[in-house]
Design brief:
Creatine Amidinohydrolase, Chain A, domain 1, 2 domains, 21% strand, 416 residues, Creatine Amidinohydrolase, alpha+beta, single chain
Protein backbone atom coordinates (compact mmCIF):
# COMPACT_ATOMS: atom_id res chain seq x y z
CA UNK A 1 0.00 0.00 0.00
CA UNK A 2 1.43 3.37 -0.99
CA UNK A 3 2.02 6.14 1.55
CA UNK A 4 -0.51 8.92 1.85
CA UNK A 5 0.66 12.30 0.56
CA UNK A 6 0.95 13.43 4.17
CA UNK A 7 3.10 10.54 5.30
CA UNK A 8 5.25 10.73 2.20
CA UNK A 9 6.03 14.39 2.94
CA UNK A 10 6.64 13.91 6.66
CA UNK A 11 8.87 10.87 6.24
CA UNK A 12 10.70 11.63 3.02
CA UNK A 13 10.58 15.31 2.00
CA UNK A 14 13.99 16.94 2.42
CA UNK A 15 14.41 20.48 1.04
CA UNK A 16 17.89 21.63 0.07
CA UNK A 17 20.10 21.87 3.15
CA UNK A 18 20.29 25.36 4.73
CA UNK A 19 22.59 24.79 7.68
CA UNK A 20 24.58 28.03 8.14
CA UNK A 21 28.01 26.56 8.94
CA UNK A 22 30.13 23.47 8.16
CA UNK A 23 29.82 20.37 10.33
CA UNK A 24 33.26 20.99 11.84
CA UNK A 25 31.97 24.25 13.34
CA UNK A 26 29.09 22.45 15.05
CA UNK A 27 31.36 19.65 16.27
CA UNK A 28 33.58 22.24 17.96
CA UNK A 29 30.57 23.98 19.50
CA UNK A 30 29.38 20.69 21.00
CA UNK A 31 32.83 20.08 22.48
CA UNK A 32 32.83 23.53 24.08
CA UNK A 33 29.38 22.98 25.57
CA UNK A 34 30.39 19.59 26.96
CA UNK A 35 33.52 21.11 28.51
CA UNK A 36 31.36 23.71 30.27
CA UNK A 37 28.99 20.99 31.43
CA UNK A 38 31.85 18.97 32.87
CA UNK A 39 33.20 22.04 34.64
CA UNK A 40 29.79 22.66 36.22
CA UNK A 41 29.07 19.00 37.06
CA UNK A 42 26.16 18.65 34.64
CA UNK A 43 25.62 15.22 33.07
CA UNK A 44 22.71 16.10 30.76
CA UNK A 45 21.73 19.57 29.57
CA UNK A 46 18.31 20.21 28.06
CA UNK A 47 18.54 23.24 25.79
CA UNK A 48 15.22 25.03 25.35
CA UNK A 49 16.24 28.58 24.34
CA UNK A 50 15.99 29.11 20.55
CA UNK A 51 19.44 30.74 20.50
CA UNK A 52 21.03 27.67 22.11
CA UNK A 53 19.19 25.26 19.84
CA UNK A 54 20.41 27.24 16.84
CA UNK A 55 23.97 27.46 18.15
CA UNK A 56 24.25 23.68 18.50
CA UNK A 57 22.42 22.60 15.37
CA UNK A 58 21.64 25.50 13.01
CA UNK A 59 17.92 24.93 13.64
CA UNK A 60 15.64 27.92 13.14
CA UNK A 61 11.93 28.41 12.68
CA UNK A 62 9.42 31.25 12.78
CA UNK A 63 7.46 30.07 15.83
CA UNK A 64 8.78 28.78 19.13
CA UNK A 65 5.44 28.79 20.99
CA UNK A 66 6.49 31.75 23.13
CA UNK A 67 2.88 32.63 24.03
CA UNK A 68 1.26 29.40 22.93
CA UNK A 69 -2.10 28.05 24.08
CA UNK A 70 -1.99 25.42 26.80
CA UNK A 71 -2.71 22.71 24.25
CA UNK A 72 0.48 23.53 22.30
CA UNK A 73 3.23 23.74 24.91
CA UNK A 74 6.82 24.66 24.09
CA UNK A 75 8.64 21.41 24.85
CA UNK A 76 10.94 20.87 21.87
CA UNK A 77 14.69 21.23 22.39
CA UNK A 78 18.09 19.58 22.37
CA UNK A 79 19.49 17.15 24.95
CA UNK A 80 23.28 17.09 25.32
CA UNK A 81 25.14 14.39 27.26
CA UNK A 82 28.47 15.39 28.73
CA UNK A 83 30.37 12.55 27.04
CA UNK A 84 28.29 11.43 24.04
CA UNK A 85 29.42 12.32 20.49
CA UNK A 86 26.02 13.55 19.31
CA UNK A 87 23.07 15.39 20.79
CA UNK A 88 19.38 14.49 20.55
CA UNK A 89 17.05 16.95 18.84
CA UNK A 90 13.46 16.56 20.03
CA UNK A 91 10.70 18.08 17.95
CA UNK A 92 7.07 17.80 16.95
CA UNK A 93 5.81 16.05 13.85
CA UNK A 94 4.75 19.50 12.56
CA UNK A 95 8.44 20.47 12.24
CA UNK A 96 9.74 17.14 10.93
CA UNK A 97 10.46 18.45 7.43
CA UNK A 98 11.93 21.68 8.80
CA UNK A 99 14.28 19.85 11.16
CA UNK A 100 15.75 17.85 8.27
CA UNK A 101 16.82 20.80 6.11
CA UNK A 102 17.90 23.43 8.64
CA UNK A 103 19.78 21.43 11.26
CA UNK A 104 22.90 19.29 11.41
CA UNK A 105 21.22 16.87 13.82
CA UNK A 106 22.26 13.24 13.44
CA UNK A 107 19.71 12.05 16.00
CA UNK A 108 16.30 13.69 15.65
CA UNK A 109 13.46 12.19 17.65
CA UNK A 110 9.91 13.17 16.76
CA UNK A 111 7.15 13.30 19.36
CA UNK A 112 4.36 10.74 18.93
CA UNK A 113 1.53 12.15 16.78
CA UNK A 114 -1.02 11.89 19.59
CA UNK A 115 1.06 14.12 21.85
CA UNK A 116 1.13 17.00 19.34
CA UNK A 117 3.65 19.43 20.92
CA UNK A 118 3.66 18.05 24.45
CA UNK A 119 6.76 15.90 24.27
CA UNK A 120 7.87 15.94 27.90
CA UNK A 121 6.98 12.32 28.68
CA UNK A 122 8.55 11.20 25.39
CA UNK A 123 11.78 13.08 26.13
CA UNK A 124 12.13 11.46 29.56
CA UNK A 125 11.38 8.03 28.08
CA UNK A 126 13.97 8.41 25.29
CA UNK A 127 16.70 9.64 27.65
CA UNK A 128 16.05 6.69 29.96
CA UNK A 129 16.05 4.23 27.06
CA UNK A 130 19.49 5.39 25.90
CA UNK A 131 20.95 5.38 29.40
CA UNK A 132 21.28 9.16 29.60
CA UNK A 133 18.89 9.44 32.54
CA UNK A 134 19.11 7.34 35.67
CA UNK A 135 19.31 7.71 39.43
CA UNK A 136 21.84 10.36 40.42
CA UNK A 137 22.07 12.00 36.97
CA UNK A 138 22.54 15.78 37.21
CA UNK A 139 20.29 17.50 34.67
CA UNK A 140 20.67 21.15 33.71
CA UNK A 141 17.62 23.14 32.63
CA UNK A 142 17.76 26.68 31.23
CA UNK A 143 15.79 28.24 34.08
CA UNK A 144 16.51 31.82 32.96
CA UNK A 145 15.11 31.23 29.48
CA UNK A 146 11.62 32.51 28.66
CA UNK A 147 11.09 29.19 26.90
CA UNK A 148 9.46 27.15 28.27
CA UNK A 149 7.26 29.19 30.58
CA UNK A 150 7.12 28.70 34.34
CA UNK A 151 4.45 25.99 34.34
CA UNK A 152 6.21 23.88 31.71
CA UNK A 153 9.63 24.41 33.29
CA UNK A 154 8.32 23.19 36.64
CA UNK A 155 6.77 20.15 34.93
CA UNK A 156 10.11 19.37 33.30
CA UNK A 157 11.82 19.64 36.68
CA UNK A 158 9.22 17.38 38.32
CA UNK A 159 9.53 14.73 35.60
CA UNK A 160 13.32 14.68 35.77
CA UNK A 161 13.20 14.52 39.57
CA UNK A 162 10.67 11.68 39.45
CA UNK A 163 13.12 9.84 37.20
CA UNK A 164 15.77 10.07 39.94
CA UNK A 165 17.72 13.02 38.54
CA UNK A 166 19.02 16.07 40.37
CA UNK A 167 17.96 19.24 38.54
CA UNK A 168 20.19 22.34 38.51
CA UNK A 169 20.19 25.63 36.60
CA UNK A 170 22.12 25.14 33.37
CA UNK A 171 21.36 28.53 31.80
CA UNK A 172 24.94 29.79 31.86
CA UNK A 173 26.40 26.86 29.91
CA UNK A 174 25.32 28.05 26.44
CA UNK A 175 25.44 31.73 27.37
CA UNK A 176 29.05 31.48 28.49
CA UNK A 177 30.16 29.40 25.51
CA UNK A 178 28.50 31.78 23.04
CA UNK A 179 30.33 34.83 24.46
CA UNK A 180 33.58 34.10 22.57
CA UNK A 181 32.81 33.58 18.90
CA UNK A 182 34.61 31.67 16.18
CA UNK A 183 36.02 33.36 13.05
CA UNK A 184 32.96 32.15 11.11
CA UNK A 185 30.62 33.75 13.63
CA UNK A 186 32.50 37.05 13.49
CA UNK A 187 32.37 36.90 9.69
CA UNK A 188 28.57 36.64 9.90
CA UNK A 189 28.46 39.74 12.11
CA UNK A 190 30.72 41.57 9.65
CA UNK A 191 28.27 40.73 6.86
CA UNK A 192 25.39 41.82 9.08
CA UNK A 193 27.12 45.21 9.45
CA UNK A 194 26.96 45.64 5.68
CA UNK A 195 23.23 44.87 5.84
CA UNK A 196 22.65 47.32 8.71
CA UNK A 197 24.43 50.10 6.81
CA UNK A 198 22.07 49.53 3.88
CA UNK A 199 19.07 49.82 6.18
CA UNK A 200 20.28 53.06 7.79
CA UNK A 201 21.07 54.59 4.41
CA UNK A 202 17.60 53.78 3.08
CA UNK A 203 15.96 55.24 6.17
CA UNK A 204 17.99 58.45 5.89
CA UNK A 205 17.04 58.82 2.24
CA UNK A 206 13.32 58.36 3.01
CA UNK A 207 13.09 61.06 5.70
CA UNK A 208 11.34 64.27 4.66
CA UNK A 209 8.50 66.44 6.00
CA UNK A 210 5.06 64.86 5.79
CA UNK A 211 6.30 61.24 5.59
CA UNK A 212 4.98 58.79 8.16
CA UNK A 213 7.40 57.07 10.52
CA UNK A 214 6.05 53.77 9.18
CA UNK A 215 6.93 54.75 5.62
CA UNK A 216 10.55 55.31 6.62
CA UNK A 217 10.46 52.03 8.56
CA UNK A 218 9.15 50.24 5.45
CA UNK A 219 11.96 51.58 3.27
CA UNK A 220 14.51 50.50 5.87
CA UNK A 221 13.11 46.97 6.15
CA UNK A 222 12.96 46.61 2.37
CA UNK A 223 16.60 47.66 2.08
CA UNK A 224 17.66 45.23 4.80
CA UNK A 225 15.92 42.37 3.02
CA UNK A 226 17.30 43.38 -0.39
CA UNK A 227 20.80 43.30 1.12
CA UNK A 228 20.18 39.73 2.31
CA UNK A 229 19.23 40.59 5.87
CA UNK A 230 16.97 38.28 7.85
CA UNK A 231 14.12 39.22 10.17
CA UNK A 232 15.57 40.87 13.31
CA UNK A 233 14.70 39.77 16.82
CA UNK A 234 13.32 43.18 17.88
CA UNK A 235 10.95 45.46 15.98
CA UNK A 236 13.10 48.30 14.65
CA UNK A 237 11.86 51.80 15.53
CA UNK A 238 11.75 55.00 13.50
CA UNK A 239 10.78 57.77 15.95
CA UNK A 240 10.27 61.49 15.34
CA UNK A 241 9.57 64.69 17.25
CA UNK A 242 9.31 64.37 21.03
CA UNK A 243 9.05 60.59 20.57
CA UNK A 244 12.77 60.76 19.77
CA UNK A 245 13.27 61.03 23.54
CA UNK A 246 11.74 57.55 24.02
CA UNK A 247 14.13 55.10 22.41
CA UNK A 248 11.92 52.02 22.88
CA UNK A 249 8.76 53.53 21.38
CA UNK A 250 7.10 52.09 18.27
CA UNK A 251 6.88 53.56 14.80
CA UNK A 252 3.43 54.87 13.97
CA UNK A 253 1.44 56.79 11.39
CA UNK A 254 2.79 60.04 12.86
CA UNK A 255 4.07 62.35 10.13
CA UNK A 256 7.58 63.76 10.44
CA UNK A 257 7.72 67.56 10.61
CA UNK A 258 10.29 70.10 9.46
CA UNK A 259 13.03 70.68 12.05
CA UNK A 260 12.35 67.48 13.99
CA UNK A 261 14.85 64.81 14.92
CA UNK A 262 14.29 61.27 13.68
CA UNK A 263 15.76 58.34 15.57
CA UNK A 264 16.45 55.16 13.55
CA UNK A 265 17.49 51.89 15.22
CA UNK A 266 18.12 48.78 13.16
CA UNK A 267 19.97 45.50 13.12
CA UNK A 268 21.46 43.66 10.19
CA UNK A 269 20.98 39.91 10.55
CA UNK A 270 22.97 37.21 8.76
CA UNK A 271 22.73 33.53 9.77
CA UNK A 272 20.77 34.81 12.82
CA UNK A 273 23.80 36.88 13.94
CA UNK A 274 22.85 40.47 14.71
CA UNK A 275 24.80 43.69 14.18
CA UNK A 276 23.00 46.60 15.84
CA UNK A 277 23.30 50.18 14.51
CA UNK A 278 21.35 53.35 15.27
CA UNK A 279 21.59 56.98 14.20
CA UNK A 280 19.69 60.23 14.72
CA UNK A 281 18.87 62.45 11.74
CA UNK A 282 17.47 65.97 11.51
CA UNK A 283 14.62 66.61 9.10
CA UNK A 284 15.72 70.11 8.22
CA UNK A 285 17.55 72.51 10.52
CA UNK A 286 17.00 71.58 14.20
CA UNK A 287 18.78 74.67 15.51
CA UNK A 288 22.45 75.46 16.06
CA UNK A 289 22.32 74.56 19.76
CA UNK A 290 21.22 71.02 18.88
CA UNK A 291 23.85 70.68 16.15
CA UNK A 292 26.61 71.87 18.48
CA UNK A 293 25.52 69.54 21.27
CA UNK A 294 25.36 66.55 18.92
CA UNK A 295 28.87 67.34 17.64
CA UNK A 296 30.24 67.06 21.18
CA UNK A 297 28.58 63.66 21.56
CA UNK A 298 29.64 62.28 18.19
CA UNK A 299 33.28 63.27 18.83
CA UNK A 300 33.41 60.47 21.37
CA UNK A 301 33.27 57.89 18.60
CA UNK A 302 36.70 58.87 17.27
CA UNK A 303 38.06 58.33 20.77
CA UNK A 304 36.27 54.98 21.06
CA UNK A 305 37.64 53.81 17.70
CA UNK A 306 41.19 54.66 18.79
CA UNK A 307 40.69 53.04 22.20
CA UNK A 308 39.37 49.59 21.40
CA UNK A 309 41.74 46.65 20.98
CA UNK A 310 41.72 42.91 21.78
CA UNK A 311 41.62 42.26 25.54
CA UNK A 312 40.66 45.86 26.31
CA UNK A 313 39.76 45.99 30.03
CA UNK A 314 36.14 46.98 30.59
CA UNK A 315 37.30 49.35 33.33
CA UNK A 316 39.57 51.21 30.91
CA UNK A 317 36.69 51.78 28.55
CA UNK A 318 34.54 53.05 31.44
CA UNK A 319 37.17 55.44 32.75
CA UNK A 320 38.23 56.79 29.36
CA UNK A 321 34.77 57.41 27.96
CA UNK A 322 33.35 58.88 31.17
CA UNK A 323 36.26 61.32 31.43
CA UNK A 324 35.66 62.46 27.86
CA UNK A 325 31.94 63.02 28.38
CA UNK A 326 32.61 64.98 31.56
CA UNK A 327 35.17 67.10 29.71
CA UNK A 328 32.60 67.81 26.99
CA UNK A 329 30.02 68.83 29.58
CA UNK A 330 27.40 66.26 28.53
CA UNK A 331 27.71 63.55 31.19
CA UNK A 332 24.78 64.88 33.23
CA UNK A 333 22.47 64.53 30.19
CA UNK A 334 23.23 60.87 29.54
CA UNK A 335 20.75 58.15 28.84
CA UNK A 336 22.26 54.66 28.56
CA UNK A 337 25.99 54.60 27.83
CA UNK A 338 27.26 51.06 27.36
CA UNK A 339 26.11 47.94 25.62
CA UNK A 340 25.65 44.21 25.51
CA UNK A 341 26.70 41.11 23.64
CA UNK A 342 25.67 40.76 20.00
CA UNK A 343 25.22 37.40 18.32
CA UNK A 344 22.51 34.80 17.65
CA UNK A 345 19.04 36.08 18.44
CA UNK A 346 15.39 35.24 17.81
CA UNK A 347 12.29 37.28 18.61
CA UNK A 348 11.50 38.77 21.03
CA UNK A 349 15.02 39.96 21.98
CA UNK A 350 18.50 40.54 20.56
CA UNK A 351 20.03 41.71 23.86
CA UNK A 352 22.85 39.30 24.70
CA UNK A 353 23.94 37.95 28.07
CA UNK A 354 27.04 40.11 28.69
CA UNK A 355 26.28 43.74 29.58
CA UNK A 356 28.40 46.75 30.43
CA UNK A 357 27.35 50.20 31.63
CA UNK A 358 29.79 53.13 31.76
CA UNK A 359 27.84 54.63 34.67
CA UNK A 360 28.22 51.48 36.80
CA UNK A 361 30.77 48.87 37.91
CA UNK A 362 29.05 46.10 35.94
CA UNK A 363 31.60 43.49 34.74
CA UNK A 364 34.40 45.88 35.70
CA UNK A 365 36.94 43.03 36.04
CA UNK A 366 36.27 41.58 32.59
CA UNK A 367 38.02 42.21 29.27
CA UNK A 368 36.76 42.22 25.70
CA UNK A 369 38.47 39.03 24.56
CA UNK A 370 39.27 38.26 20.92
CA UNK A 371 36.16 36.69 19.43
CA UNK A 372 33.69 38.92 21.27
CA UNK A 373 31.17 41.35 19.80
CA UNK A 374 29.14 43.99 21.61
CA UNK A 375 27.15 47.05 20.71
CA UNK A 376 27.92 50.50 22.13
CA UNK A 377 25.00 52.79 22.87
CA UNK A 378 25.76 56.51 23.06
CA UNK A 379 22.59 58.28 24.24
CA UNK A 380 22.27 61.91 25.33
CA UNK A 381 19.21 64.12 25.80
CA UNK A 382 19.66 67.27 23.71
CA UNK A 383 18.39 70.85 24.19
CA UNK A 384 14.73 71.92 24.13
CA UNK A 385 13.40 68.34 24.38
CA UNK A 386 14.38 67.88 20.74
CA UNK A 387 15.26 64.24 21.26
CA UNK A 388 18.18 61.97 21.95
CA UNK A 389 21.54 62.01 20.30
CA UNK A 390 20.99 58.30 19.78
CA UNK A 391 23.92 56.43 18.31
CA UNK A 392 24.52 52.69 18.43
CA UNK A 393 27.57 50.99 16.94
CA UNK A 394 28.72 47.38 17.04
CA UNK A 395 32.29 46.61 18.10
CA UNK A 396 34.06 43.40 17.09
CA UNK A 397 37.25 42.20 18.77
CA UNK A 398 39.40 40.03 16.52
CA UNK A 399 42.73 38.32 17.28
CA UNK A 400 44.89 41.22 16.12
CA UNK A 401 42.53 44.22 16.00
CA UNK A 402 39.19 45.62 17.09
CA UNK A 403 36.84 47.59 14.84
CA UNK A 404 33.77 49.78 14.77
CA UNK A 405 31.70 47.90 12.21
CA UNK A 406 29.64 50.59 10.49
CA UNK A 407 30.59 52.90 7.63
CA UNK A 408 27.73 55.32 8.38
CA UNK A 409 28.57 58.75 9.83
CA UNK A 410 28.10 59.36 13.56
CA UNK A 411 27.27 63.04 13.03
CA UNK A 412 23.77 64.43 13.30
CA UNK A 413 23.05 64.72 9.58
CA UNK A 414 20.49 67.17 8.23
CA UNK A 415 18.34 65.40 5.63
CA UNK A 416 15.02 65.75 3.83
Amino acid sequence: MSLSYRDDVLQNCTPDLEVPFPQEEYDERLRKVQAQMAERGIDVLFVSAPEGINYLSGYQCEWFQAQSPKQWPATSGIAVHVDQPTFMLFDTEREWVLSRYCSCSKDTRIFPPDSMRDGQAFIIEQLKKDGWLKGGTTVGLELWSYRPNRVLSERFEDKFTDAGARVVDGTEVLREVRWVKSPLELAAIEDAARVADAGLTAAKNAIRPGVMELEVYGEMVAALAKAGGENPAITQPVLSGKKANAAHAMSSRRKIQEGELVLVDCSGVVKRYHCNMARTYACGDPGQDVMDYAARCSASMKLLGDLIRPNLPVKELYDTMKAFYEEQGVWQDRGFIGGYEMGIAFPPDWVGNFIYDVASTENIDRVFEPGTAVNYENQYFMPRQKGLYFMIETLCFFEDEARLMSNVSYDLEVVG
